[in-house]
Amino acid sequence: MQQTHAGTPRHVETAGRRSFSFGSLFTYLCLILWSLTTIYPLLWIVNNSFKISRDVMNNSFAIALKPVMTNYTNAFDRISIGKSYMNSLIMSVSTVLLVLILGGLAAYIIARFKFRGRSAVYSILVATLLIPAFATVVPVYELLIKWKLVNTYWGLILPHTAGNLTFAILVIAAYMSTIPKDLEEAAFIDGCNRLTMFTRIFLPISRPVFASASIFVFLWSYNDLFSALIFVNKESVRPIVALLNEISSQYGTDFGLMAAAVSLTVIPVMIIYLFIQRFIEKGMTEGAIKG
């Protein structure tokens, strides 16, 4: 029997490599098959967006050999998708900024301060995740009416901020609790106060978890059709998800236009996600470990 330089039988080492290769092949095959369930519908939508409605109805699975741009021009001219796009970006980006500012400060206090009732506050935050959003619609709507914020940008920004704040606090606090105590002590020696320490030390170190929280908050705010239909149903402040809902009712027979509108809604978000996915993975994995 041949031996390796470390004394391990060569056929055992070769068998180990072969089993690892077969296992990796099986894993990648499963991942490819699973990804096709998401990638293929997206490609199908994009392909149909370059067809007229009649061709989509007759053969929606055929490749658009002669693509037309009529659906995209109609999306901007006929249904004013650009205005709804801007409304969604204004409300979603504002929600993300508010959640990151308020959630970051709250997470910093929970993660690095020792005070009476800290465990109770943490437990309450976790418990609020169990409350469904539907249960808060009536009181939130009454508050917005009282403050005259219905059918305004703030009428959707404030509910989304309140709804996503707990998630951001818990995720960011879990990450900040892993930052070594030595950095905090060194900052105190250098004369940093708490606010300076947060902005110059904890904030730069926590960029991965802030990126993770921002993309999740953005997507949840961007895709929230239920709140958009209730709080901002006016055309001037209508977000893009509400516009898609109206396309399906007013222009239900124009499937090419609907495919173009869905493509314009989904693809930019996917592009943004691809650029920052490495921050998301790092933030979620490191923030899940304490100590």
Automatic annotation (TrEMBL):
<keyword id="KW-0472">Membrane</keyword>
<dbReference type="InterPro" id="IPR035906">
    <property type="entry name" value="MetI-like_sf"/>
</dbReference>
<feature type="transmembrane region" description="Helical">
    <location>
        <begin position="197"/>
        <end position="222"/>
    </location>
</feature>
<feature type="transmembrane region" description="Helical">
    <location>
        <begin position="25"/>
        <end position="46"/>
    </location>
</feature>
<dbReference type="InterPro" id="IPR000515">
    <property type="entry name" value="MetI-like"/>
</dbReference>
<dbReference type="Pfam" id="PF00528">
    <property type="entry name" value="BPD_transp_1"/>
</dbReference>
<keyword id="KW-1133">Transmembrane helix</keyword>
<keyword id="KW-0813">Transport</keyword>
<comment type="similarity">
    <text>Belongs to the binding-protein-dependent transport system permease family.</text>
</comment>
<feature type="transmembrane region" description="Helical">
    <location>
        <begin position="89"/>
        <end position="110"/>
    </location>
</feature>
<protein>
    <submittedName>
        <fullName>Carbohydrate ABC transporter permease</fullName>
    </submittedName>
</protein>
<keyword id="KW-1003">Cell membrane</keyword>
<keyword id="KW-0812">Transmembrane</keyword>
<feature type="transmembrane region" description="Helical">
    <location>
        <begin position="153"/>
        <end position="176"/>
    </location>
</feature>
<feature type="transmembrane region" description="Helical">
    <location>
        <begin position="122"/>
        <end position="141"/>
    </location>
</feature>
<feature type="transmembrane region" description="Helical">
    <location>
        <begin position="255"/>
        <end position="276"/>
    </location>
</feature>
<feature type="domain" description="ABC transmembrane type-1">
    <location>
        <begin position="85"/>
        <end position="276"/>
    </location>
</feature>
